[in-house]
Amino acid sequence: MNRRGIEPYLLARCLIRAAAWMIPSCSRVDWRREWMAELHYAQSTLAEAGREMARGRQLISFALGAFQDAAWLRTHTWSGEHFKPAVTRATESPSFCLFGVGIILALITLTSGFLPGTRAALLQLPYSDPDRIATVAQGDTTLAVRSGIRDQWVRWWRTDSHLIEGAATYFWSEKTVDRRSAQVATVSPDFFPLLGARTAERRRLTTKYFENCSDCVMLSYDFWRKTFGGKAPTSLVMDGRRFRVIAVLNKDFWFLTRRIGVWEIGRDAMNRNAKTGVVIRLRPNVTAAQACAELASIVQAQGVNPWSSLIVISSLSTRVRAVFWSFALALILAIGTILPAVRVNFAPWSTRGLVRALFFCSKTGLLLVAVLLAGLEFTRASSITMLGGTDLATEPLSTWLFLLGCMGTLTWSIYDQRHRCRVCLRRFGLAAQVGCPGCVFLSWTGTEMVCLEGHGMLRVPERVSSWQRPDQWMSLDDSLLELFTQDR
Amino acid sequence: MKDEVKLTHTSALVLKVISGGCNYGFDIMERTGLQSGTVYPILRRLEESGLILAQWEPEAAQQLQRPQRRYYKLSRVGERTLAKAAQRYPLIQNLTAGEEKR
């Protein structure tokens, strides 16, 4: 073979190899093998026929045809006839199920802004000695109701209490800030010093900071970055009034909700009849129960009847993390309700049983985590009222939503597991109605589903009765595998 | 159902050439004068329709120090379809007449 003949031949081989990338991987090897053999034969035939001059051009022309062939095969493969079964087959696999659950988790993470509520509940609160910070609410005939405290009571506590270091007030509302809507908290001047909050420059906010401070506001870090692009404004207009910006709060700072953008220091925010949220700092080694008793007695000493002076003190750390306990309770209730209905035989002592059990646990565990995160991020936000308390509907609602989510997740997970092959864990296909539904007491009637890999068949009766099993799994003999290989 | 496959003139020509004993893609090209980019997709289509059957050469071909080739032959359905196509395209018979198996 002379040099002139080798070069077109090698080029033609390269072209065929390049075209082979267009072929679906499952048939690529055979396709390339056929084209290489044909090219070899073409090269030999042309050489034997003495068509040396035209040989190079013809080999290249021949190899270029491989692109047309590959393109035809590729478009044919992507036609609905082949594409739809391929997609169906992919969606039946257990890995697709886990992938789908992963996508749900990723969506929750992204839409919530990387799980701020969950992170806040898990990380330490951004206050000085946070375990001594507590919120105070007025109780009612039902324990679920938490409402604000009368302003007059706070003044009595400040002067008469020996068990608390201080009491600050807060409430929030929606206002227009520089022509855009924002959540604004109105807090008493001792609010930030009581919490031990810090500015963005890490300076501790003391009472001196707020002396002679009329029409002053503080900005939350995120609000400052979004609204002012990181440039510190000297003032802003809120509901038509101009306020002086005295500082930007530390990036980690939040209180009950992360939606507050502006913190107004309001000396005249309180009046005698208004109800407000109250946060207190307990003295060291004072329990919430002791403080509760003392604060109630102070109020009663001023002439308020005991029934109206019911108050509830909740440690802020406990309150933030209490969500996990209420959700854990809901989870236990859901599992306890579902377990009796579980008829899936995992047989974890065998390898296949172990794989099935692992798949079921992974799928269910990830879904429950997704429900928990969704509950933390999307329903808990609505359970905190404007005064930082909770009302009759929202707190139980979020727990009930989580409970329903757990029940739904477990029910679907068990249903999905029952409709998967006991061997390869793929979803069954080719569901067929067998028998006559009207003759349920005379003969078996129900649905038969087959594993498309040929491992077995599941028979699900139309109605569950005492004389037949709810589901019946039948392993198929290996001799029947050939019937299924054509569909693969 | 496969008896009802409608063949184009070119496909019928390829089918006729295969029935004449040309079993390989390059041979079909040589006999019909069609380009490789035309012949091979037609072969795929005919194979998928069940009109031709494809097989790899026996392993013994490797002893000849050349790669195995994929050869094609008519199926029974293909023979019936070709008979019908010959009525539809009478010139095909003339085009390949006298060039049956070399």
Estimated radius of gyration of chain A: 36 Å
Strand order of the largest sheet of chain B: 1-2
Q: Specify the CATH class of chain B.
A: Mainly Alpha
SSE pattern of chain B: HHHEEHH
CATH fold name of chain B? Arc Repressor Mutant, subunit A
SSE string of chain A: HHHHHHEEHEEHEHEEEEHEHHHEEEEH
Described by the principal axes of the CA atoms, the overall outline of chain B is globular
Helix content of chain A: 40-55%
Count of the domains of chain B: 1
- Give me the Rg of chain B, rounded: 14 Å
Q: State the largest interface.
A: A-B, 23 and 18 residues
Helix content percent band of chain B: 40-55%
Please identify the oligomeric state.
Answer: heterodimer
Based on secondary structure, the structural category of chain A is alpha+beta
| Major sheet characteristics of chain A | 10 strands, mixed
First CA to last CA of chain A: what distance? 44 Å
User: What structural category arises from helix and sheet content of chain B?
Assistant: mainly alpha
Largest sheet of chain B: 2 strands, antiparallel
In total, the number of strands of chain B is 2
Structure description:
The complex is a heterodimer of chains A (488) and B (102). Chain A has 488 residues and is of the alpha+beta class. Chain A has four domains: 3-78, no CATH class; 107-117 and 318-418, no CATH class; 131-316, no CATH class; 429-485, no CATH class. In chain A, 46% of the residues lie in helices and 18% in strands. Chain A starts with a helix and ends with a helix. In chain B, α1 packs across α3 (36-48) and α4 (76-88) packs across α5. Chain B is globular and about 45 Å long. Helix content of chain B is 51%, strand content 10%. The longest helix of chain B has 13 residues, at 36-48. Chain B has one domain (2-96): Arc Repressor Mutant, subunit A. By secondary structure, chain B is mainly alpha-helical. A two-stranded antiparallel ribbon of chain B has the order 1-2. The A-B interface holds A 30, 33-34, 36-38, 40-42, 44-45, 61-69, 72-73, 76 and B 24-26, 29-30, 35-41, 44, 66-70.
